[in-house]
Design goal:
Keywords: Membrane, Transmembrane, Transmembrane helix. The chain has 2 domains: 266 residues, Rhopdopsin 7-helix transmembrane proteins, CATH 1.20.1070; 123 residues, no CATH class. β1 and β2 form a beta hairpin. The strands form 2 sheets. The chain has a 3-stranded antiparallel sheet, with no helix packed on it. The relative contact order is 0.11. By secondary structure, it is mostly helical.
């Protein structure tokens, strides 16, 4: 019975333990193990917030799903069980982990969308993504039911249901991707004063656009191939394997993209603002070559020049090494209700307590109120030309 549907593919194990450990050479299992380790390390050391929690939960769910599934293969492919039919209740329960792991991808894209989208359009898109989870869960539970009752991991009915589940996931991903690209384009047109010259598009387009599109394409192709293979034997199942492996790695790819995005935001102020103060920065040597001894930096809140800092210093003709402090966007945006002077004890890293995509939300709220979010820790005289009320009367809650 098991061999009829190629569950074992020629595997013969003496016992279940040997079978399970032998399954680690299968990329479908090892990918989830490696993905879980990498995502958890990234989460602990580099990322916090809702986005990273969802990534970690998805990685953990994928690991549990893979372990249960391949432990079942190890059990089915023993010499005593290959020709027997079993009712595998654990495979039905296992679908809970696959539901969490797989639909986390559209949900992660929805988190990105919520960071830059507002209004009725955003609410409609969110509702569509939540509605699509219903047929997705239905198809996944049917997969678990057929696996449980037939005692196999794959047959034509299961392949067809897999294709339909992946198709729902692909539709949700495509909706999120198109919406994200649309709202970013709308944002860039509306933003009259941006954090950097390339505005929000500059820190996203380098990698995220490509990642979003690749995820959509792979999901769509995989769903079509799975459905076709369930109706005909003309399509070799091996053609599906690369797309299935890529789908299994989505969480790890999105985690890597999140790290790139985070440090892209961190480096943006240095890259964009170093030229505005008449200086050039050599990253390799960590030195600034100043062409002037007076730097004027203004913080503009709407039409009010609330803060005007005159940083006075003198430099010799030789290169002067300075420790640069790049202020995290969220750290600057969290100054509402405090003294509006900026001290030199800010840190040069992104705060680990902030979700990287929530920074987009904060940028969106403040895009018309701030300009030139960059300073050095060069000692100077700070002068406040406006009261706190003038600066914070229009600040968002």
């Amino acid at each position: 019975m098991v061999e009829e549907y190629n569950t074992c593919n020629g595997k013969h194990y003496r016992n279940s333990f040997e079978g399970f450990f032998a399954e680690f050479q299968d990329s479908f299992l090892y990918t989830f193990v490696l993905q879980f380790i990498i995502v958890i390390i990234m989460h602990l050391h580099s990322g916090k917030g809702k986005y990273w929690r969802v990534l970690s939960i998805s990685a953990a769910s994928g690991l549990m799903g893979a372990i249960i599934e391949h432990a079942t293969i190890g059990y089915l492919c023993t010499n005593d069980n290959q020709n027997s039919k079993h009712t595998l209740y654990l495979l039905l329960i296992n679908e809970i982990f696959w539901i969490i792991n797989e639909y986390a991808i559209p949900y992660l894209n929805l988190i990105k969308l919520e960071s830059i989208a507002r209004g009725n359009s955003a609410n409609i898109i969110k509702s569509i993504i939540y509605v699509l989870v219903i047929p997705f869960i239905t198809f996944r539970l049917l997969i678990g039911y057929y696996r449980m009752t037939n005692g196999v991991l794959n047959n034509n009915d299961i392949k067809r249901l897999h294709g339909l589940a992946f198709w729902i996931m692909a539709i949700a991903d495509i909706i999120c991707t198109v919406s994200i690209l649309y709202f970013i384009r709308t944002y860039n047109k509306q933003a009259s004063a941006s954090i950097t010259d390339n505005n929000i598009n500059g820190v996203i387009k380098q990698s995220s656009y490509i990642i979003l599109i690749i995820v959509d394409i792979v999901s769509f192709i995989l769903s079509i191939l799975m459905i076709i293979s369930s109706y005909t034997d003309e399509l070799n199942n091996n053609l599906i394997v690369p797309f299935h492996c890529l789908k299994n790695s989505y969480v790890m790819v999105l985690a890597a993209d999140a790290i790139i995005f985070k440090y892209g935001v961190a480096m943006a102020p240095i890259d964009e603002h170093s030229g505005r103060i008449g200086s050039s920065f050599d990253i390799s040597s960590g030195k600034y070559n100043y062409k002037s001894s007076l730097v004027n930096i203004q913080y503009n809140y709407g039409s009010n020049n609330c803060l005007n800092y005159n940083l006075k210093s003198s430099f010799s003709n030789s290169d002067t090494s300075l420790k640069m402090n790049t202020v995290q966007l969220s750290e600057l945006l969290n100054t509402k209700g405090r003294n509006n002077s900026i001290t030199d004890n800010s840190h040069s890293r992104l705060s680990s307590d902030d979700d990287i995509y929530s920074s987009l939300n904060e940028i969106n709220n403040m895009r018309n109120k701030r300009n030139g979010l960059f300073y050095t820790n060069t000692k100077g005289h700070f002068h406040n030309y406006s009261s706190d009320d003038a600066c914070y009367s229009n600040s968002p809650d």
